[in-house]
Write a structure and sequence with these properties.
The chain has 13 helices and eleven strands. It is an alpha/beta fold. The protein folds into two domains: 182 residues, 3-Layer(aba) Sandwich (Rossmann fold); 103 residues, no CATH class. It binds iron/sulfur cluster (SF4).
Length: 334
Amino acid sequence: MSEIIALALFSGGLDSILACRVIQEQNIRVQAVQFVTPFFHDDLLQQEDEYRSYIKKKYDIDVLIRDITLPYLTMLENPPHGYGKYFNPCIDCKILMVSEIKKMMAEFDASFIISGEVVGQRPMSQRKDTMRVIERDSNTDLILLRPLCARSQKLTQVELDGIVDRNQLPDFSGRGRSGQIRLATELGICDYPNPAGGCVLADPVLSKRLQKYFKTDRKISPEDIRFLLVGRQFLLPHGGWLALGRKQQENSKITALHQSGDYLFNMKNRPGPTGLLRYGHHPDDWKLAAALVVRYGKKTENGPTAAVVCIEGPDKVFEIKTDPCRDEIGQWLR
Ligand code: SF4
């Protein structure tokens, strides 16, 4: 019989590791796929090879990274099943990921898809009814197997064909983690990441910030999302977006995000935050951005005083001398 291959939705968390391992135990080859967007696991794009070797060495799982930012942004504008507590479209996020991995099945000659979902574990996307909705809307009825809770789910084709034996799979449900921790120990997995976390759409502060910008008429690009996730942010009166670094690492990140059309701000004679102004082509936005840079710059012995800010614009470099922005104005722009 030819080799049976499963494609796995992989998040790097314990449940997805276990889902891969229990299917491998049934002599099935598992190819894990970790989807990334600027909202989650974005950093993996810069270290794909290291990450793949790390996961292989640590968990004996073959993983590859796929960027799904573009379809994700389209979905996020209007998710048919709505948002969760914050800006997290969990049900549509899962539907999108399952749909995307389904498109990869032919490429890998895969017979089915697995995921680490556990019925009852998450309030939105892992309820019994929503798990059915995910299958239905991704058109993966019969080919989506959740190995950690399959015994309480409908039979899938690989089970009907005798390729996967559900009696050898665990039967987890609910929010408790003790079963997963026990199974991990049995499989010799003793070091794994904490559950959840890592998705900024479910972060109380960052999700609010993102939602505010998604409500404007502007089409948001992947570079814009990366911009919006760094430093202090201000929305200026003429439509400019301003990011200010709060520490050296953020200043470097902000400098690296500089793209054509942006304005880069730095104080000339005193240390201060690096500022990046995007979509800010009005001179009043330049002045306000400069005043904010001075406001968060290093104070002199005499308290807040005027300073010169050097601005690298799309077609010229210029300077503005300004007093610091008043706190109440800064608060109003955040
Ligand atoms: S928390 Fe984020 S990554 Fe996880 S399902 Fe929800 S939207 Fe998707």
